[in-house]
Design goal:
The chain is built from 12 helices and 17 strands. By secondary structure, the chain is α+β, with helices and mostly antiparallel strands. It has 2 domains: 195 residues, no CATH class; 215 residues, Aminoglycoside phosphotransferase (APH), C-terminal lobe (Aminoglycoside 3'-phosphotransferase, Chain: A, domain 2, Alpha-Beta Complex). A 6-stranded mixed β-sheet has the order 1-11-12-9-8-7. Helix 4 packs across helix 9, helix 5 packs parallel to helix 10 and helix 9 runs antiparallel to helix 10. The protein is globular.
């Protein structure tokens, strides 16, 4: 079923209630900026349940945000505000919204208990809700919605269809239609319910714990490398490949452009200029590059789960605020491997390792990943890891300056 947004005088009134609350949300795309907010429309799911779509514009940011809301009588400590004497509540984890959502969603369905739902805490660009039951699931409410297929729904459905078993299977999904920038209706996903992986450990937290104990992560990393390789094989089966004649030159240009961008944001990176140039030149000497294919797009240890001695890979949406075309574009499979390698460096640092201890632990884990994956062109892999590390340097300088030494150490290794 595809819901069609309607416009109502209450949309603007609800938005007024939300104005101060929205910028405090982790998933709000324009923190600290002057933002223009407007109501796009709403999906009434039940008498006291609605989904409000809010357009947020600030500079280059132009996003449509999904805000499930429940109106309730009485006093609620967690109320966003009040409208006509009734509390306005964030509906994402509330039984009223969850019941209404499941009643209109498509898919094979799930046997869940919405009264025992639990919103996943922590920093997320969407809102995830665990639904226990006979066939438990985890609902991801997409906060930034976009027209077209959503990779976090589309890719797992394709992987399951070709028999790949290391992804939580989609159980239900919901699409909606709303006015696009030109006024015409566009269609996109609003959310997806996937199978819940029980007894699961977050891959990054697990790696950090191993690092904190000084225990080798190589065996688990090798298993993850193998699962990642089978994922890439399954994605080729599901989506095919795309051959690019100037593959190495395109990679070289991209890395050079990334360094120029990073240098403008972090001038202290100038000391890596010669090393980056050498890596770029190495790539240019390659005669060919592997064909492009569908990839995960944002793979790191925080996107994998370990359950019953098995790795599961999840969160295939890529960067939620990036254009859909960019998130679904065929790419080098080695980019996913590069993301995992960079995540190993972060796990060592967060786990408390420094100096030679950190170098030894990461080298051991990296070797395990590469062994399990089956290798790959080392020149290309180094370039793709460098590209990721330059991005990290800019991100950390802007958001977590105390973490900047992590990518700086990576740059010293990759350009040395």
């Amino acid at each position: 079923m595809s819901l069609i947004a309607r416009t109502s005088p209450d949309d603007a009134r609800l938005l007024d209630v939300l104005r101060d609350w929205l910028p405090t949300r982790r998933w709000f795309p324009a923190k600290g900026q002057s933002v223009e907010l407007s109501a796009v429309g709403s999906f009434p799911l039940a008498p006291d349940v609605t989904v409000l779509l809010v357009r947020a514009r600030a500079g280059s940011i132009d996003a449509v945000l999904q805000v499930p809301l429940v109106l309730s009588d009485g006093v609620h400590d967690d109320a966003i505000g009040v409208l006509d004497g009734r509390a306005v509540l964030d509906g994402a984890g509330r039984p009223e919204f969850l019941h209404a959502w499941l009643s209109v969603a498509d898919g094979p369905g799930a046997d869940v208990d919405v009264s025992s739902a639990r919103v996943v805490s922590g920093e997320q660009s969407n809102t995830s809700v665990i639904l226990p039951g006979a066939r438990p699931g985890i609902l991801k409410v997409l906060r930034a919605v976009a027209p077209g297929e959503n990779p976090d729904v589309d890719v797992p459905r394709h992987l399951v269809s070709v028999g790949w078993k290391y992804v939580p299977a989609p159980l239900a999904w919901l699409q909606g239609q709303w006015p696009g920038p030109d006024g015409g209706l566009v269609t996109g996903y609003l959310g997806v319910l996937a199978s819940f992986v029980d007894a699961a450990e977050d891959g990054f937290e697990l790696a950090c714990a191993y690092a904190a104990r000084g225990e080798s992560f190589a065996s688990l990393a090798a298993d993850l490398g193998t699962v990642t390789a089978t994922m890439h094989d399954a994605l080729v089966t599901a989506y095919g490949v795309e051959v690019i004649d100037q593959g190495p030159q395109e990679v070289a240009r991209a890395v050079a452009a990334r360094f120029s961008w990073a240098l403008s944001a972090v001038p202290a990176l100038a000391r890596f200029s010669d090393g980056v140039a050498a890596v770029v030149e190495e790539v240019r000497t390659l005669a060919t590059a592997p064909p492009r294919q569908r990839v995960h797009g944002d793979l790191h240890l925080g996107q994998v789960l370990r359950s019953h001695d098995t790795w599961f890979i999840m969160d295939f949406e890529g960067e939620p605020l990036a254009p859909l075309e960019q998130r679904t574009r065929p790419d080098l499979a080695l980019r996913d491997l590069a993301g995992l390698l960079r995540s190993v460096d972060y796990a060592a640092a967060v786990g408390g390792l420094t100096g030679t201890d950190a170098a030894a632990w990461t080298a051991d884990a990296r070797a395990g990943l590469l062994r399990g994956y089956g290798g790959g062109d080392q020149i290309l892999l180094r370039a793709l890891e460098l590209d990721k590390t330059l991005y990290e340097a800019v991100y950390e300088s802007r958001n977590r300056p105390s973490w900047l030494p992590i990518p700086i150490a990576g740059l010293e290794r990759l350009t040395g």
